[in-house]
User: What shape does this take?
Amino acid sequence: MSDFSKLEEKLNLSFKNKNLLKQAFVHRSFLNENPAPGLDHNERLEFLGDAVLELIVTEYLYNNYDNPEGELTSWRAALVNSKMLSSVAKELSFNDYILLSKGESQDVGRARQYILANAVEALIGAIYIDLGTDEADKFIKNHILSHLPAVLEKKLYRDPKSYLQELVQEKFGITPTYEVLEETGPDHAKTFIVGVYIEKELLAKGKGSNKQEAQEEAARNAIDTSPKIGV
Amino acid sequence: MSDFSKLEEKLNLSFKNKNLLKQAFVHRSFLNENPAPGLDHNERLEFLGDAVLELIVTEYLYNNYDNPEGELTSWRAALVNSKMLSSVAKELSFNDYILLSKGESQDVGRARQYILANAVEALIGAIYIDLGTDEADKFIKNHILSHLPAVLEKKLYRDPKSYLQELVQEKFGITPTYEVLEETGPDHAKTFIVGVYIEKELLAKGKGSNKQEAQEEAARNAIDTSPKIGV
Assistant: This one.
Protein backbone atom coordinates (compact mmCIF):
# COMPACT_ATOMS: atom_id res chain seq x y z
CA MET A 1 0.00 0.00 0.00
CA SER A 2 1.21 3.47 -0.90
CA ASP A 3 2.45 5.73 1.83
CA PHE A 4 0.06 8.66 1.76
CA SER A 5 2.03 10.59 4.35
CA LYS A 6 4.75 11.03 1.71
CA LEU A 7 2.15 12.47 -0.60
CA GLU A 8 1.00 14.88 2.09
CA GLU A 9 4.58 15.99 2.53
CA LYS A 10 5.03 16.43 -1.19
CA LEU A 11 1.81 18.44 -1.48
CA ASN A 12 2.60 20.34 1.70
CA LEU A 13 -0.80 19.46 3.13
CA SER A 14 -1.78 17.86 6.39
CA PHE A 15 -5.19 16.20 6.29
CA LYS A 16 -7.27 15.98 9.46
CA ASN A 17 -9.12 13.00 8.01
CA LYS A 18 -6.41 10.85 6.39
CA ASN A 19 -9.07 8.51 5.05
CA LEU A 20 -10.45 11.28 2.86
CA LEU A 21 -7.06 11.77 1.22
CA LYS A 22 -6.84 8.07 0.50
CA GLN A 23 -10.39 7.97 -0.83
CA ALA A 24 -9.46 10.52 -3.48
CA PHE A 25 -7.17 7.89 -5.01
CA VAL A 26 -9.57 4.93 -4.92
CA HIS A 27 -10.86 3.98 -8.35
CA ARG A 28 -14.11 1.99 -8.33
CA SER A 29 -12.30 -1.01 -9.85
CA PHE A 30 -10.09 -1.30 -6.75
CA LEU A 31 -13.01 -1.87 -4.39
CA ASN A 32 -14.25 -4.84 -6.40
CA GLU A 33 -11.02 -6.65 -5.72
CA ASN A 34 -10.31 -5.14 -2.31
CA PRO A 35 -13.56 -4.50 -0.50
CA ALA A 36 -12.73 -2.56 2.64
CA PRO A 37 -15.30 -1.46 5.20
CA GLY A 38 -15.44 2.31 5.44
CA LEU A 39 -13.49 2.89 2.23
CA ASP A 40 -15.46 4.35 -0.66
CA HIS A 41 -14.32 5.11 -4.22
CA ASN A 42 -13.54 8.64 -5.32
CA GLU A 43 -16.51 9.47 -7.53
CA ARG A 44 -18.47 11.62 -5.12
CA LEU A 45 -15.31 13.54 -4.20
CA GLU A 46 -14.68 14.04 -7.90
CA PHE A 47 -18.24 15.37 -8.35
CA LEU A 48 -17.52 17.97 -5.67
CA GLY A 49 -13.93 18.72 -6.67
CA ASP A 50 -14.86 19.33 -10.29
CA ALA A 51 -17.21 22.14 -9.20
CA VAL A 52 -14.62 23.59 -6.79
CA LEU A 53 -11.99 23.61 -9.53
CA GLU A 54 -14.40 25.21 -11.98
CA LEU A 55 -15.31 28.05 -9.64
CA ILE A 56 -11.78 28.80 -8.49
CA VAL A 57 -10.44 28.89 -12.06
CA THR A 58 -13.45 30.90 -13.24
CA GLU A 59 -13.10 33.46 -10.49
CA TYR A 60 -9.39 33.83 -11.13
CA LEU A 61 -9.96 34.43 -14.83
CA TYR A 62 -12.85 36.80 -14.18
CA ASN A 63 -10.82 38.87 -11.73
CA ASN A 64 -7.60 39.02 -13.72
CA TYR A 65 -8.69 39.36 -17.34
CA ASP A 66 -11.14 41.68 -19.05
CA ASN A 67 -11.59 39.39 -22.04
CA PRO A 68 -15.04 38.39 -23.26
CA GLU A 69 -16.74 35.38 -21.76
CA GLY A 70 -16.17 33.21 -24.86
CA GLU A 71 -12.39 33.57 -24.59
CA LEU A 72 -12.32 32.95 -20.86
CA THR A 73 -14.44 29.85 -21.40
CA SER A 74 -11.93 28.39 -23.83
CA TRP A 75 -8.98 29.23 -21.56
CA ARG A 76 -10.76 27.54 -18.70
CA ALA A 77 -11.46 24.46 -20.82
CA ALA A 78 -7.75 24.21 -21.61
CA LEU A 79 -6.92 24.35 -17.89
CA VAL A 80 -9.44 21.84 -16.60
CA ASN A 81 -9.61 19.27 -19.40
CA SER A 82 -8.53 15.70 -18.73
CA LYS A 83 -5.32 16.12 -20.72
CA MET A 84 -4.13 18.99 -18.54
CA LEU A 85 -5.31 17.40 -15.30
CA SER A 86 -3.66 14.08 -16.10
CA SER A 87 -0.40 15.85 -16.83
CA VAL A 88 -0.71 17.61 -13.46
CA ALA A 89 -1.33 14.17 -11.90
CA LYS A 90 1.81 12.82 -13.53
CA GLU A 91 3.93 15.78 -12.32
CA LEU A 92 2.72 14.93 -8.81
CA SER A 93 3.44 11.16 -9.25
CA PHE A 94 -0.18 10.19 -8.78
CA ASN A 95 0.55 6.97 -10.63
CA ASP A 96 2.32 5.84 -7.43
CA TYR A 97 -0.80 6.43 -5.33
CA ILE A 98 -3.78 5.60 -7.47
CA LEU A 99 -5.58 2.44 -6.31
CA LEU A 100 -6.79 0.30 -9.22
CA SER A 101 -7.80 -3.26 -9.92
CA LYS A 102 -5.07 -5.46 -11.40
CA GLY A 103 -6.84 -5.39 -14.76
CA GLU A 104 -7.20 -1.62 -14.80
CA SER A 105 -3.59 -1.10 -13.80
CA GLN A 106 -2.45 -2.77 -17.03
CA ASP A 107 -4.08 -0.08 -19.13
CA VAL A 108 -1.87 2.96 -19.31
CA GLY A 109 -3.58 4.62 -22.29
CA ARG A 110 -6.53 6.93 -22.54
CA ALA A 111 -8.43 5.17 -19.73
CA ARG A 112 -5.58 5.90 -17.30
CA GLN A 113 -5.57 9.51 -18.41
CA TYR A 114 -9.19 9.89 -17.26
CA ILE A 115 -8.53 8.04 -14.02
CA LEU A 116 -5.62 10.36 -13.21
CA ALA A 117 -7.58 13.48 -14.13
CA ASN A 118 -10.48 12.32 -11.95
CA ALA A 119 -8.11 11.73 -9.05
CA VAL A 120 -6.94 15.36 -9.30
CA GLU A 121 -10.56 16.53 -9.08
CA ALA A 122 -11.26 14.13 -6.22
CA LEU A 123 -8.20 15.38 -4.35
CA ILE A 124 -9.43 18.96 -4.79
CA GLY A 125 -12.78 17.84 -3.37
CA ALA A 126 -11.02 16.21 -0.42
CA ILE A 127 -8.89 19.31 0.26
CA TYR A 128 -11.99 21.53 0.07
CA ILE A 129 -13.91 19.45 2.61
CA ASP A 130 -11.07 18.68 4.96
CA LEU A 131 -9.00 21.84 4.83
CA GLY A 132 -11.30 24.50 3.38
CA THR A 133 -11.53 26.90 0.47
CA ASP A 134 -8.20 28.62 1.03
CA GLU A 135 -6.19 25.41 0.80
CA ALA A 136 -8.15 24.31 -2.29
CA ASP A 137 -7.45 27.72 -3.78
CA LYS A 138 -3.73 27.39 -3.03
CA PHE A 139 -3.53 23.90 -4.55
CA ILE A 140 -5.30 25.04 -7.72
CA LYS A 141 -3.13 28.15 -8.05
CA ASN A 142 0.08 26.18 -7.51
CA HIS A 143 -0.66 23.20 -9.70
CA ILE A 144 -3.27 24.20 -12.27
CA LEU A 145 -3.44 27.95 -12.74
CA SER A 146 0.35 27.86 -12.84
CA HIS A 147 -0.11 26.46 -16.38
CA LEU A 148 -2.09 29.48 -17.55
CA PRO A 149 0.92 31.41 -18.95
CA ALA A 150 1.85 28.40 -21.13
CA VAL A 151 -1.78 27.91 -22.18
CA LEU A 152 -1.91 31.52 -23.35
CA GLU A 153 1.54 31.62 -24.89
CA LYS A 154 1.16 28.38 -26.81
CA LYS A 155 -2.52 29.00 -27.46
CA LEU A 156 -3.31 25.56 -26.02
CA TYR A 157 -6.96 26.62 -25.84
CA ARG A 158 -7.14 26.38 -29.59
CA ASP A 159 -7.60 23.22 -31.60
CA PRO A 160 -3.91 22.31 -32.22
CA LYS A 161 -4.39 21.18 -35.82
CA SER A 162 -5.98 24.40 -36.99
CA TYR A 163 -3.53 26.49 -35.00
CA LEU A 164 -0.54 24.65 -36.51
CA GLN A 165 -2.03 25.03 -39.95
CA GLU A 166 -2.32 28.78 -39.43
CA LEU A 167 1.29 29.02 -38.21
CA VAL A 168 2.69 26.94 -41.06
CA GLN A 169 0.56 28.79 -43.61
CA GLU A 170 1.83 32.10 -42.30
CA LYS A 171 5.50 31.10 -42.26
CA PHE A 172 5.79 28.84 -45.28
CA GLY A 173 2.65 29.45 -47.33
CA ILE A 174 1.78 25.76 -47.33
CA THR A 175 -0.39 23.34 -45.38
CA PRO A 176 1.09 20.71 -43.07
CA THR A 177 0.28 17.08 -43.87
CA TYR A 178 -0.20 14.04 -41.63
CA GLU A 179 0.89 10.49 -42.21
CA VAL A 180 0.33 7.31 -40.20
CA LEU A 181 3.77 5.89 -39.37
CA GLU A 182 2.75 2.95 -37.22
CA GLU A 183 -0.44 1.13 -36.33
CA THR A 184 -0.09 -1.50 -33.62
CA GLY A 185 -2.14 -3.52 -31.16
CA PRO A 186 -5.36 -5.52 -31.41
CA ASP A 187 -8.54 -3.99 -32.84
CA HIS A 188 -10.01 -2.96 -29.49
CA ALA A 189 -6.80 -1.33 -28.32
CA LYS A 190 -4.98 0.12 -31.30
CA THR A 191 -2.20 2.62 -31.09
CA PHE A 192 -1.44 5.01 -33.90
CA ILE A 193 1.74 6.95 -34.40
CA VAL A 194 1.33 9.83 -36.78
CA GLY A 195 3.89 12.26 -38.19
CA VAL A 196 3.17 15.83 -39.22
CA TYR A 197 5.19 17.20 -42.15
CA ILE A 198 5.98 20.36 -44.02
CA GLU A 199 6.52 18.99 -47.49
CA LYS A 200 8.86 16.07 -46.75
CA GLU A 201 10.25 17.32 -43.49
CA LEU A 202 9.01 15.66 -40.32
CA LEU A 203 8.09 18.29 -37.71
CA ALA A 204 6.93 16.01 -34.91
CA LYS A 205 5.18 12.76 -34.06
CA GLY A 206 2.11 12.05 -32.00
CA LYS A 207 0.56 8.94 -30.47
CA GLY A 208 -3.10 8.13 -29.88
CA SER A 209 -5.76 5.44 -29.81
CA ASN A 210 -7.18 6.77 -33.08
CA LYS A 211 -5.82 8.82 -35.98
CA GLN A 212 -7.45 12.09 -34.97
CA GLU A 213 -5.98 11.90 -31.48
CA ALA A 214 -2.54 11.03 -32.83
CA GLN A 215 -2.73 13.92 -35.31
CA GLU A 216 -3.68 16.35 -32.57
CA GLU A 217 -0.77 15.24 -30.44
CA ALA A 218 1.57 15.53 -33.40
CA ALA A 219 0.33 19.06 -34.07
CA ARG A 220 0.69 19.95 -30.41
CA ASN A 221 4.22 18.53 -30.32
CA ALA A 222 5.14 20.46 -33.45
CA ILE A 223 3.90 23.69 -31.85
CA ASP A 224 5.70 22.90 -28.59
CA THR A 225 9.00 21.53 -29.81
CA SER A 226 9.72 22.01 -33.51
CA PRO A 227 12.40 24.66 -34.07
CA LYS A 228 10.84 25.33 -37.49
CA ILE A 229 7.65 26.55 -35.83
CA GLY A 230 8.92 28.19 -32.67
CA VAL A 231 5.97 29.86 -30.98
CA MET B 1 -36.05 52.34 -17.41
CA SER B 2 -36.89 49.68 -14.86
CA ASP B 3 -36.62 50.58 -11.21
CA PHE B 4 -33.94 48.26 -9.89
CA SER B 5 -34.47 49.41 -6.31
CA LYS B 6 -37.83 47.61 -6.42
CA LEU B 7 -36.04 44.47 -7.50
CA GLU B 8 -33.58 44.82 -4.63
CA GLU B 9 -36.51 45.10 -2.25
CA LYS B 10 -38.17 42.09 -3.74
CA LEU B 11 -34.98 40.03 -3.54
CA ASN B 12 -34.20 41.41 -0.09
CA LEU B 13 -30.73 42.44 -1.21
CA SER B 14 -28.92 45.74 -1.06
CA PHE B 15 -26.15 46.08 -3.61
CA LYS B 16 -23.14 48.27 -2.83
CA ASN B 17 -22.53 48.67 -6.55
CA LYS B 18 -25.96 49.25 -8.08
CA ASN B 19 -24.43 49.22 -11.53
CA LEU B 20 -23.47 45.58 -11.11
CA LEU B 21 -27.07 44.64 -10.38
CA LYS B 22 -28.19 46.42 -13.52
CA GLN B 23 -25.44 44.83 -15.59
CA ALA B 24 -26.81 41.40 -14.73
CA PHE B 25 -29.92 42.28 -16.72
CA VAL B 26 -28.23 43.77 -19.80
CA HIS B 27 -28.43 41.50 -22.82
CA ARG B 28 -25.83 42.17 -25.49
CA SER B 29 -28.56 43.21 -27.96
CA PHE B 30 -29.52 46.13 -25.72
CA LEU B 31 -26.10 47.77 -25.93
CA ASN B 32 -26.21 47.84 -29.72
CA GLU B 33 -29.25 50.11 -29.58
CA ASN B 34 -28.40 51.87 -26.33
CA PRO B 35 -24.64 52.25 -26.04
CA ALA B 36 -23.91 53.62 -22.58
CA PRO B 37 -20.43 54.42 -21.31
CA GLY B 38 -19.56 52.23 -18.35
CA LEU B 39 -22.40 49.79 -18.94
CA ASP B 40 -21.40 46.30 -20.08
CA HIS B 41 -23.60 43.34 -21.00
CA ASN B 42 -24.06 40.45 -18.61
CA GLU B 43 -22.02 37.70 -20.24
CA ARG B 44 -18.96 37.87 -18.01
CA LEU B 45 -21.17 37.93 -14.92
CA GLU B 46 -23.00 34.91 -16.31
CA PHE B 47 -19.66 33.10 -16.81
CA LEU B 48 -18.88 33.66 -13.14
CA GLY B 49 -22.40 33.08 -11.80
CA ASP B 50 -22.74 29.78 -13.62
CA ALA B 51 -19.71 28.43 -11.74
CA VAL B 52 -20.92 29.83 -8.40
CA LEU B 53 -24.33 28.21 -8.90
CA GLU B 54 -22.72 24.93 -9.86
CA LEU B 55 -20.53 24.77 -6.78
CA ILE B 56 -23.22 25.80 -4.30
CA VAL B 57 -25.71 23.28 -5.68
CA THR B 58 -23.02 20.58 -5.87
CA GLU B 59 -21.87 21.15 -2.30
CA TYR B 60 -25.44 21.10 -1.03
CA LEU B 61 -26.17 17.79 -2.76
CA TYR B 62 -22.86 16.31 -1.65
CA ASN B 63 -23.46 17.25 1.99
CA ASN B 64 -27.09 16.21 2.19
CA TYR B 65 -27.34 13.06 0.11
CA ASP B 66 -25.32 9.86 0.08
CA ASN B 67 -26.39 8.92 -3.44
CA PRO B 68 -23.85 8.00 -6.10
CA GLU B 69 -22.30 10.71 -8.22
CA GLY B 70 -24.35 9.80 -11.32
CA GLU B 71 -27.63 10.47 -9.54
CA LEU B 72 -26.45 13.70 -7.99
CA THR B 73 -25.27 14.83 -11.40
CA SER B 74 -28.72 14.34 -12.91
CA TRP B 75 -30.43 16.08 -10.00
CA ARG B 76 -28.06 18.99 -10.39
CA ALA B 77 -28.75 19.15 -14.11
CA ALA B 78 -32.49 19.38 -13.39
CA LEU B 79 -31.87 22.28 -10.99
CA VAL B 80 -29.55 24.39 -13.13
CA ASN B 81 -30.85 23.80 -16.66
CA SER B 82 -32.24 26.73 -18.61
CA LYS B 83 -35.82 25.54 -18.20
CA MET B 84 -35.62 25.61 -14.42
CA LEU B 85 -33.64 28.86 -14.32
CA SER B 86 -36.03 30.63 -16.68
CA SER B 87 -38.96 29.56 -14.53
CA VAL B 88 -37.13 30.98 -11.50
CA ALA B 89 -36.63 34.18 -13.51
CA LYS B 90 -40.34 34.36 -14.28
CA GLU B 91 -41.29 33.82 -10.62
CA LEU B 92 -39.07 36.79 -9.83
CA SER B 93 -40.57 38.92 -12.66
CA PHE B 94 -37.25 39.25 -14.47
CA ASN B 95 -39.19 39.96 -17.66
CA ASP B 96 -39.83 43.42 -16.16
CA TYR B 97 -36.12 44.08 -15.70
CA ILE B 98 -34.31 42.42 -18.55
CA LEU B 99 -32.81 44.95 -20.99
CA LEU B 100 -33.14 43.85 -24.62
CA SER B 101 -33.11 45.35 -28.09
CA LYS B 102 -36.51 46.07 -29.58
CA GLY B 103 -36.10 43.14 -31.96
CA GLU B 104 -35.12 40.71 -29.24
CA SER B 105 -37.96 41.79 -27.00
CA GLN B 106 -40.49 40.57 -29.59
CA ASP B 107 -39.27 37.00 -29.24
CA VAL B 108 -40.82 35.36 -26.23
CA GLY B 109 -40.05 31.75 -27.17
CA ARG B 110 -37.03 29.60 -26.60
CA ALA B 111 -34.58 32.50 -27.14
CA ARG B 112 -36.18 34.40 -24.28
CA GLN B 113 -35.95 31.34 -22.08
CA TYR B 114 -32.16 31.32 -22.49
CA ILE B 115 -31.91 35.06 -21.93
CA LEU B 116 -33.86 34.78 -18.69
CA ALA B 117 -31.84 31.78 -17.51
CA ASN B 118 -28.61 33.64 -18.26
CA ALA B 119 -29.84 36.65 -16.30
CA VAL B 120 -30.34 34.42 -13.25
CA GLU B 121 -26.75 33.20 -13.54
CA ALA B 122 -25.51 36.76 -14.11
CA LEU B 123 -27.40 37.95 -11.03
CA ILE B 124 -25.79 35.17 -8.99
CA GLY B 125 -22.40 36.35 -10.28
CA ALA B 126 -23.23 39.92 -9.30
CA ILE B 127 -24.38 38.89 -5.80
CA TYR B 128 -21.22 36.82 -5.34
CA ILE B 129 -18.92 39.70 -6.25
CA ASP B 130 -20.79 42.48 -4.56
CA LEU B 131 -22.17 40.79 -1.45
CA GLY B 132 -20.11 37.61 -1.04
CA THR B 133 -20.53 33.85 -0.88
CA ASP B 134 -23.05 33.82 1.96
CA GLU B 135 -25.56 36.00 0.12
CA ALA B 136 -25.09 33.97 -3.10
CA ASP B 137 -25.65 30.85 -1.04
CA LYS B 138 -28.82 32.29 0.45
CA PHE B 139 -30.20 33.34 -2.94
CA ILE B 140 -29.52 29.90 -4.41
CA LYS B 141 -31.06 28.10 -1.44
CA ASN B 142 -34.17 30.30 -1.48
CA HIS B 143 -34.82 30.36 -5.18
CA ILE B 144 -33.20 27.32 -6.76
CA LEU B 145 -32.52 24.59 -4.21
CA SER B 146 -36.06 25.26 -2.96
CA HIS B 147 -37.16 23.36 -6.09
CA LEU B 148 -35.24 20.23 -5.14
CA PRO B 149 -38.13 18.50 -3.31
CA ALA B 150 -40.33 18.88 -6.42
CA VAL B 151 -37.48 17.74 -8.68
CA LEU B 152 -37.12 14.59 -6.60
CA GLU B 153 -40.82 13.97 -6.07
CA LYS B 154 -41.79 14.46 -9.71
CA LYS B 155 -38.55 12.92 -10.94
CA LEU B 156 -37.93 16.01 -13.07
CA TYR B 157 -34.36 14.81 -13.54
CA ARG B 158 -35.68 12.13 -15.81
CA ASP B 159 -36.70 12.55 -19.42
CA PRO B 160 -40.42 13.36 -19.01
CA LYS B 161 -41.61 11.29 -21.97
CA SER B 162 -40.04 8.05 -20.81
CA TYR B 163 -41.06 8.71 -17.22
CA LEU B 164 -44.69 9.31 -18.24
CA GLN B 165 -44.62 6.18 -20.37
CA GLU B 166 -43.46 4.18 -17.38
CA LEU B 167 -46.17 5.62 -15.15
CA VAL B 168 -48.95 5.03 -17.68
CA GLN B 169 -47.66 1.56 -18.46
CA GLU B 170 -47.67 0.71 -14.78
CA LYS B 171 -51.15 2.07 -14.08
CA PHE B 172 -53.00 1.26 -17.28
CA GLY B 173 -50.85 -1.25 -19.12
CA ILE B 174 -50.78 0.91 -22.26
CA THR B 175 -48.54 3.46 -23.91
CA PRO B 176 -49.49 7.16 -24.06
CA THR B 177 -49.75 8.71 -27.54
CA TYR B 178 -49.03 12.22 -28.79
CA GLU B 179 -50.92 14.24 -31.35
CA VAL B 180 -50.23 17.64 -32.87
CA LEU B 181 -53.27 19.81 -32.16
CA GLU B 182 -52.07 23.10 -33.61
CA GLU B 183 -49.22 24.33 -35.74
CA THR B 184 -49.02 28.09 -36.11
CA GLY B 185 -46.57 30.85 -37.09
CA PRO B 186 -44.18 31.33 -40.02
CA ASP B 187 -41.58 28.69 -40.87
CA HIS B 188 -38.74 30.27 -38.87
CA ALA B 189 -40.87 30.70 -35.77
CA LYS B 190 -43.37 27.89 -35.59
CA THR B 191 -45.32 27.00 -32.50
CA PHE B 192 -46.65 23.50 -31.94
CA ILE B 193 -49.33 22.51 -29.50
CA VAL B 194 -49.32 18.82 -28.78
CA GLY B 195 -51.72 16.71 -26.71
CA VAL B 196 -50.79 13.53 -24.86
CA TYR B 197 -53.48 10.87 -24.62
CA ILE B 198 -54.32 7.59 -22.92
CA GLU B 199 -56.41 5.95 -25.58
CA LYS B 200 -58.81 8.80 -26.47
CA GLU B 201 -58.55 10.72 -23.24
CA LEU B 202 -56.52 13.92 -23.28
CA LEU B 203 -54.16 14.05 -20.29
CA ALA B 204 -52.47 17.38 -20.96
CA LYS B 205 -51.19 19.75 -23.63
CA GLY B 206 -47.75 21.16 -24.26
CA LYS B 207 -46.34 23.98 -26.38
CA GLY B 208 -42.99 24.24 -28.08
CA SER B 209 -41.08 25.50 -31.09
CA ASN B 210 -40.82 21.92 -32.40
CA LYS B 211 -42.76 18.73 -31.89
CA GLN B 212 -40.28 17.12 -29.52
CA GLU B 213 -40.28 20.14 -27.22
CA ALA B 214 -44.09 20.31 -27.27
CA GLN B 215 -44.33 16.58 -26.50
CA GLU B 216 -41.93 16.93 -23.58
CA GLU B 217 -43.93 19.78 -22.15
CA ALA B 218 -47.15 17.81 -22.61
CA ALA B 219 -45.61 14.84 -20.80
CA ARG B 220 -44.34 17.10 -18.04
CA ASN B 221 -47.78 18.72 -17.69
CA ALA B 222 -49.44 15.32 -17.55
CA ILE B 223 -47.08 14.26 -14.76
CA ASP B 224 -47.60 17.54 -12.93
CA THR B 225 -51.31 18.12 -13.33
CA SER B 226 -53.29 15.16 -14.62
CA PRO B 227 -55.42 13.56 -11.89
CA LYS B 228 -55.20 10.30 -13.83
CA ILE B 229 -51.45 10.18 -13.27
CA GLY B 230 -51.09 11.75 -9.85
CA VAL B 231 -47.45 11.41 -8.86
User: Anything to note?
Assistant: The interface with chain B takes residues 43-44, 46-48, 50-52, 54-55, 58-59, 62, 68-70, 72-73 of chain A (CB under 8 Å). The two ends of chain A are 43 Å apart (CA to CA). Chain A has a mean pLDDT of 92.
